[in-house]
Specification:
Blueprint: H1 8-28, H2 55-71, H3 76-88, H4 92-105, H5 110-122, H6 126-136, H7 144-156, H8 160-173, H9 178-190, H10 194-205, H11 212-224, H12 228-235, H13 241-255, H14 260-273
Helix pairs in contact: 1-7, 1-9, 1-11, 2-3, 3-4, 3-5, 4-5, 5-6, 6-7, 7-8, 7-9, 8-9, 9-10, 9-11, 10-11, 11-12, 11-13, 13-14
Length: about 270
């Protein structure tokens, strides 16, 4: 593993901040399912997958779905889709407000409760999110997506062992699910076990259903070990040039914290020169 020239305390703070940010990202993507479930794969009023949308396209989709929601706030699908798009565009407080209304209108709907818990977590209400997702889960018909979401929240609370138990329970229900494997890898990244994190993230990225967020997490784990050029190659895989640049920009923003980007880039240049 590469040695960093930053102090151990600064490196730890940087790593903690980067990992929490991406665990939150993983949490937001835990429900990447077809339209019948919480929709992040595609939106009913658009033909383009959400993960393939640019920031302006996401904003336009949120505006369109928002108009449908405004016309009928009791429309379950419109509320779920609108809140999800709001989260994807960083409007977490507004997403939480939407999900509060949806939950009031559908108080016993498991999918709604799960989405409400995710909105609470994205807005920083972690303990409340755990309670809400706990209400959505049923012992006789456990939902792997809720198990994974619960794990991501526990990771943000610093309860890594409990989080990893939830991920493994989710994998028992849905073997080799890339979003769960990615969350498990990020759990190890949180505790600075970068090699184990990379192992799980590579496994996640190799699965047929893996999306760009999984590869973005893998790129971060690789970059934090000083292998910057490899990390940038991973971040650019199988994407349009615009999406690739956005992924690389995000990777750079993560690694630039505490000056880590410049130091890793210098270390990588030395390796190439040697």
């Amino acid at each position: 593993m590469a040695k960093y020239t930053t102090s151990s305390s600064k490196r730890a703070r940087f790593l903690q901040g980067a990992a929490i940010a991406l665990v939150a990202l993983s949490l937001a993507g835990c429900a990447n399912q077809p339209k019948k479930e919480l929709t992040t794969g595609s939106i009913s009023r658009t033909s383009k997958p959400v993960q393939s949308m640019t920031a302006p396209e996401l904003s336009a989709a949120a505006e369109s779905i928002g108009q449908a929601y405004e016309k009928n706030p009791k429309d379950r699908e419109a509320g779920l889709n609108y809140a999800n798009l709001l989260r994807m565009t960083g409007r977490n407080e507004q997403a939480l407000a939407v999900m509060q209304q949806v939950a009031i209108n559908h108080p016993s709907d498991r999918e709604v409760l799960g989405a409400y818990g995710k909105a609470q977590a994205a807005a920083g209400q972690l303990e409340q999110a755990l309670a809400t997702i706990g209400r959505a889960q049923t012992p006789d018909r456990p939902d792997w997506k809720l198990k994974s979401a619960e794990g991501a929240i526990l990771d943000q609370l610093g309860r890594a062992q409990e989080a990893r138990l939830r991920y493994r329970e989710a994998l028992d229900l849905k073997p080799n699910e890339p979003s769960v494997l990615s969350n498990l890898g990020m759990s190890y990244l949180l505790t600075k076990d970068l090699r184990t994190a990379e192992t799980y993230l590579k496994l996640a990225a190799s699965q047929p259903g893996a999306d760009s967020s999984v590869r973005q997490n893998l790129a971060l784990a690789v970059g934090l070990q000083g292998r910057f050029q490899e990390a940038e190659t991973i971040a650019r895989q199988e994407l349009s040039s615009e999406q690739a640049e956005a992924n690389v920009a995000y990777l750079r923003s993560m690694l630039s914290q505490q000056g880590a980007w410049k130091e890793l880039a210098k270390a990588d240049d030395k390796k190439v020169a040697n």
